[in-house]
Protein: Cyclic-di-AMP receptor
Amino acid sequence: MLLLIAVVQDQDVNRLLTALLEKGYRATKLASTGGFLRQGNTTLLIGVQEEQAEEVNSIIKGICRTRKGLVSPMTAVDQTLNTYIPTPVEVEVGGATVFTLKVESFEKF
Amino acid sequence: MLLLIAVVQDQDVNRLLTALLEKGYRATKLASTGGFLRQGNTTLLIGVQEEQAEEVNSIIKGICRTRKGLVSPMTAVDQTLNTYIPTPVEVEVGGATVFTLKVESFEKF
Amino acid sequence: MLLLIAVVQDQDVNRLLTALLEKGYRATKLASTGGFLRQGNTTLLIGVQEEQAEEVNSIIKGICRTRKGLVSPMTAVDQTLNTYIPTPVEVEVGGATVFTLKVESFEKF
Ligand code: NI
Ligand code: NI
Ligand code: NI
Structure:
């Protein structure tokens, strides 16, 4: 048995949990924040059999991998412009870090 | 040394921590929620010696194992009845999942 | 690769994260509380290479180790004294517990 500890962005969590559940995988969510730069992440604990690890990693990758996204930079509004229309800016969103640990024993009570 | 990662129901946490402390075991509580169905759980980190793992697992089992409990289904109140008296319903409560991991090294500063 | 799970006091977290970042280490913060006596702690997940573990442990030790600190016991104010001046009391502060786990595999998406 393996324990996957996956740190993912908050914005991807619900889609990831849905995708995992569709394949029969359950996850425990831990509230977490990035140390400095990566605010708003969630840490998931997912217990899987050795032969399931590849599928779970591929589900995580499919949903959470770093990709381009558009955000409207509302915080940068220039107060002198009455007719400010934010131009969406392309940024990197998503990303996931997955640590896989060997489980010595697993109990369910 | 071993690290036990125990996911237990919120309702069982205080009794479990008391029982662990009585035997000299300390735990760190992580705020957690079930992925979908099992809301309101807590994840405990418990560092133990190899020879203590069985006792700790047995304490967790004794307090947290899945069992029958009665709940009053107040959310199902029929608005048309003035004299609604909820009938307690038997449900499964509790349950615990424990991952045991081998610790390469342990430091206390 | 190794995963360090460090439980540290809340008061030391920001200085620790700054010191880790200066050396290029990133950490994920999990909200945590001590079981009973050690309120206000934070659990950090830090992924490192084998050869970095000693340095990271030494950074944690340098910042978080148990030491003497002064606190003003404002909660013990005697209401009958108009001119109460709290005498700072020396207490133990800080402290850290670090579990080092071997990582089977590590993925970044
Ligand atoms: Ni978060
Ligand atoms: Ni909870
Ligand atoms: Ni805290």
